Amino acid sequence: xxxxxxxxxxxxxxxxxxxxxxxxxxxxxxxxxxxxxxxxxxxxxxxxxxxxxxxxxxxxxxxxxxxxxxxxxxxxxxxxxxxxxxxxxxxxxxxxxxxxxxxxxxxxxxxxxxxxxxxxxxxxxxxxxxxxxxxxxxxxxxxxxxxxxxxxxxxxxxxxxxxxxxxxxxxxxxxxxxxxxxxxxxxxxxxxxxxxxxxxxxxxxxxxxxxxxxxxxxxxxxxxxxxxxxxxxxxxxxxxxxxxxxxxxxxxxxxxxxxxxxxxxxxxxxxxxxxxxxxxxxxxxxxxxxxxxxxxxxxxxxxxxxxxxxxxxxxxxxxxxxxxxxxxxxxxxxxxxxxxxxxxxxxxxxxxxxxxxxxxxxxxxxxxxxxxxxxxxxxxxxxxxxxxxxxxxxxxxxxxxxxxxxxxxxxxxxxxxxxxxxxxxxxxxxxxxxxxxxxx
Length: 440
Ligand SMILES: Cc1cc2nc3c(=O)[nH]c(=O)nc-3n(C[C@H](O)[C@H](O)[C@H](O)COP(=O)(O)OP(=O)(O)OC[C@H]3O[C@@H](n4cnc5c(N)ncnc54)[C@H](O)[C@@H]3O)c2cc1C
Known about the structure:
It is a single chain. By secondary structure, the protein is α+β, with helices and mostly antiparallel strands. The protein contains 15 helices and 18 strands. The strands form four sheets. Strands 11, 12, 13, 14, 15, 16, 17 and 18 form an eight-stranded antiparallel β-sheet that branches. The longest helix is centred in the C-terminal third of the chain and has 22 residues, at 297-318. The site of flavin-adenine dinucleotide has 35 residues, from strand 2, helix 4, strand 9 and helix 11.
């Protein structure tokens, strides 16, 4: 039997933690790897087992821009709240998940990334400090500039194996290098995050463009040219996102700017626009200049956010668990990844493709009818085998949650499993924090 609890302050939260009852904590419930509409079924609760579903979305929210330019966040603050607050002060966030209603504290738990990662790198590096409740209901503080050291746990081999993934947004397992890493990407399995200090950036002016390209299934040569050439412009360009022609079909017809084609969206710093134009746009051979258009910032963000949201909602309507990928590869392997997706496009199941193009990190989504689910699962198994061979990152931003645990097995070995167990024994001895999570 699960019991839902809603926490309205830290005292209530600490009081529950001290009971050591097995619990799953959540914030805005936008995770794509937790099937919220079928949660109890997926948690595999046994008859008579008492389990708590713990809502953190009502925790009192507070934001403060510190003198050092960092943003301090407490409680239920979303990325949208933070962006609006910072803009009023001439600054901006460095990480922007497409789903802006997600909470920042939860973003640390999932090691969220997003659109602005192209210019600013991953969230993990932007977290200066955080506070969390440990299993005894005590609030503890962790710092980025202190190395992670835990009595009785040797991280040497774990860190050595992490190096293979260090250039990706996220590896298939957390980093465990600095103190703050303990709570970043561990999906609430070691404690509950209550306060965060993250870096921000000055809010410089920007221009927003989109570029039409042929459908990638038919001709991806322009896509390949763009991804290769854009890599040198990470100081000038903040966002490089793709929405394919299939994904656009989820928008109402009069809101689709794509004329039946794929589109790549760019946010370019105004001060760098000339360089972007002369050294990037003007050098493209496969793109027609007449197919590049300017957009307002609001329209840009609305389109970019509405497409994945509509895809996500359609899956829920169909009663199927989301069947999307979250694979990031090195730019030199991008063509090989696209070749796999091209094969997927031929299996006869509806699909679409969108995501963080500049980082070679796209979400391919099957939109299966319930009868097609097994077929799609087989395709995904094949994909993850290939990603393993390419040494790519299988889950670069949405995490593992409940849905991806099956696929993670080949990416983690004895070293990771032993480290997870040692950490759980030490920091969650009663197995009260998300006992079904990937560290169990
Ligand atoms: C349309 C759409 C677009 C998306 N785009 C992106 C994207 O660009 N980048 C990206 O990274 N993700 C993206 N996501 C995924 C999702 O938004 C992120 O995973 C986000 O960080 C989840 O935040 P949430 O508040 O909804 O957390 P929830 O879904 O409520 O929880 C997610 C996980 O975090 C844990 N958790 C939540 N709060 C805490 C806490 N305070 N302390 C400890 N653990 C906690 C939970 O136990 C759970 O395992 C997208 C999702 C959707 C639906």
